[in-house]
Design a protein that fits this description.
Length: 199
């Protein structure tokens, strides 16, 4: 059968079996001894056909899974770089209590100061910019302690840092100065607190 060709794999190597011929490469069984051509009817037994379908199905599932995984990581990376995804740590003034009383300005207390969560800073080598996550919301803080006495603002990005504002409280509710001042720096776009200080 050297001049014959298997319609499944193209092999020309066959060996004779009872009532026909069998392809040495893929195992396809041909029951008659006529010349095998591409126009001939399909062989009766194709052992690798189901195996090929199963492999093709597995390959398709793996490709889809890899594609979805890459899409997730690219989307996650894009949202963290853009600063659109803002996650705030809530303020919980009752969660801490200090045994050392201090003279804080305005409505500030030790427990409010300690409950202010400073954001985690991330530097991105590819963009040479900083992003922040997990800090408390300045808007929520201002509702608790009132408007600051002094405000300093950085309107433009500098050294990869986004525009920021530093709010300082250093007066009592009746307008006198206190022993302790508190300053909080927040990112202007997200209003997330990125630094705090008491002095």
């Amino acid at each position: 059968m050297r001049n014959r060709e298997c319609v499944n794999c193209g092999s020309t190597e066959f060996h004779q079996v009872e009532n026909g011929w069998k392809c040495d490469y893929c195992g396809t069984l041909y029951l008659d001894s006529e010349t095998i051509t591409p126009q001939q009817k399909q062989p009766l037994y194709q052992p690798h056909q189901h195996k090929k379908r199963r492999i093709n199905g597995l390959v398709a599932v793996v490709i889809i899974w890899v594609g979805l995984s890459l899409s997730y990581f690219i989307f996650k990376s894009d949202t963290s770089d853009s600063g659109d995804a803002v996650s705030y740590e809530p303020l919980d003034p009752e969660m801490t209590d200090s045994s050392t009383p201090k003279n804080f300005p305005g409505k500030w207390t030790q427990s409010i100061y300690e409950s202010v969560k400073v954001a985690t800073e991330h530097y991105h080598d590819d963009t040479e910019k900083y992003t922040f996550e997990g800090g408390s919301s300045y808007e929520e803080l201002e509702k608790l302690v009132g408007k600051p006495d002094t405000v300093i603002s950085w309107e433009k990005e500098d050294y990869g840092m986004p525009p920021r504002t530093q709010a300082t409280w250093d007066k009592t509710s009746d307008g006198g100065y206190t022993e302790n001042s508190i300053s909080v720096t927040y990112e202007k776009n997200t209003m997330m607190i990125v630094d705090k200080d008491s002095y």
